[in-house]
Amino acid sequence: MSSMTNTDFSLSIEDLTVSFDGFKAVDSLNLYIDKNELHVVIGPNGAGKTTVLDLICGKTKSTSGSIKFLNQELTTLSEHEIVRRGVGRKFQTPSIYENLSVFENLEVSYPEGRGVFGSLFFKRSTKVIDEIHRIAQEIMLESELETEAGLLSHGQKQWLEIGMLLIQDPQLLMLDEPVAGMSVKEREQTAVLLNKISKGRSVLVIEHDMEFVARIAHKVTVLHQGKILAAGKMEDVQKDPKVIEVYLGH
Amino acid sequence: MSFIYDKLLGGKSGALGLLVLSILILVVFPLALDGFRLNLIGKYLTYAFAAMSLVLLWGYGGTLSLGQGIFFGLGGYCMAMFLKLEASSPENTAIQSTPGIPDFMDWNQITELPWFWEPFSSFGFTIAAILIVPALFAYIIGVAMFKRRVGGVYFAIITQVIAVILTVLIVGQQGFTGGINGITDLRTLNGWDMTSDSAKYLFYYINCALLITVIVLSRFILTSKFGRLLLAIRDKEDRVRFSGYDVANFKIFIFCFAALVSAIGGAMFTLQVGFMSPSFVGIVPSIEMVIFAAVGGRMSLIGVVYGTLLINFGKTTFSESFPELWLFLMGGTFIAVVMFFPNGLAGLWEEYSTPLMKKIRAKIQPSVTAKPSSSSYETKESK
Ligand SMILES: Nc1ncnc2c1ncn2[C@@H]1O[C@H](COP(=O)(O)OP(=O)(O)O)[C@@H](O)[C@H]1O
Ligand SMILES: [Mg+2]
């Protein structure tokens, strides 16, 4: 690992800073993620975790620093271009199309017919339908394909949004608190799902639930007031006195 | 075949709704009404184009325009310019100080046809202009607004401001536009008397045919992935953007298409009513169009046609005897609909007819249990 250069990483964030009216929500952040790595960012509320995802996916423009994904600078691209480079992002509150069926939610997310005319003449081919069924099975919603998405349980909505990202086969998948509001059983299932989908891509997860983090994380970064407090394996991070003080202690 | 059925007619209920409407406007009205009243219906139906444009833009796209009168007016004025030039032949205008130009120009001491009027002596150019000018104008507004992520209330207000500016411009530039009176005294189309009964019937049928064409085209848009994207944008714009779509382009397209549809209505208005004036461009007509759409049901292309007809019957009936009362009545109806029946007439119909149909069907075929239909994933477009 130590002999690797930056270019071997899938995602490399260097010196990233964003300041909102002088308040640095993210402050000189460095973060590297490998392919096949499931990286979890933890930290107290307001630490800047969501802001990091906003910066990567282009929702917020950085004040300074660089975000390279597969050796391509993302900070200058617009949101849809970043997605088309292979970056998918799940929002903290489930963000799905409540008025459309589960099937339609997945179809709308299918990465074809993304232009105006492409979408007008998009055909629901058997390839598309098969892919939607495959993803629906993966996110445990195959029996709900015709259900209006607004009627799903909170946990199912979280899964659906993950599925909407998976159908685009992103190389970097970013999930903001994916198990928030889930039952114990749903958490179990989600952990299995995340372990499965982190193969062949990079996954960046923001999470609070320590037990859950321990189950899924390959590496952990602890964020505090926009800065990295500690990073490494979960066992090591958990023992770090600084971390215990600001985060795990209470 | 299934393409036509599902994509253009909107499946079973959509096809049925379109059939009923077609029979009503193509057969029942012409048989039951005299020429004068049929012409009145024809006029109302031109407003239905604007109401349908709002179904696409507002109902599905979630973007309210309070300026559809702009495009209705632009379409109407393009048509009126052509007809006015035809009515202003040197023989017809021999008594003017400058014969061969429209009378209002002569009254305003204009001695030469302005350059932008010149091409409107060609019928082909005029038809092209009706289709292109409003859509192009919408494109410019759309790019300026949507690329900057201006939407919601701000967009509504800006469209309204543009409608006001356009009205002021038309009224102020009397010599070029006919001012507050508009462009009047339109008599012939390619030498053919527009006020004759045969012309009125023909225009009425052309109007109906265009209306049905627009419904079918709109259904194609709404049943495509584009249509589902419109709903998705209305619901969660950010989710669509972060799924790899340039959201602004979709809004610009539907705004342009809505402008085109309104413009066709405006052009047909001029043909059937025989004039065009700024009173069809500004705030009041634009808001009336929103009311037609809201009352008919902003998610229903066919519902808004009924909504438009109903409100305009009401207007004609009431406003003759109690003009002041009508405004309050219309305002009240609008508020009541928005508060209690957000899906308008179409929503009410859906609510009461669907259970009834089910009951009837159950009585007819008590033994048949529900089987999964072949088009079970099709987006339902309400009648
Ligand atoms: N667009 C913004 N404008 C101003 N302040 C913001 C903005 N986005 C986030 N913040 C602030 O940045 C800090 C970090 O927020 P956030 O990233 O949401 O924290 P976390 O996800 O770790 O709980 C908070 O204090 C928040 O108020
Ligand atoms: Mg957060």
Automatic annotation (TrEMBL), chain B:
One Pfam family assigned to this protein is: BPD_transp_2
Q: Where in the cell is it found?
A: Cell inner membrane
The cross-references to InterPro entries, in alphabetical order and at most eight, read: ABC_transp_permease (IPR001851), ABC_transptr_urea_perm_UrtC (IPR017778), LivM-like (IPR043428)
CDD domains reported in the protein's UniProt record: TM_PBP1_LivM_like (cd06581)
Please give the start and end residues of each transmembrane region.
15-32, 123-146, 153-172, 202-222, 243-269, 289-313, 325-349
Q: Which keywords label this protein?
A: Cell membrane, Membrane, Transmembrane, Transmembrane helix
Q: What is its main location?
A: membrane
What protein name does the entry list? Urea ABC transporter permease subunit UrtC
* The encoding gene: urtC
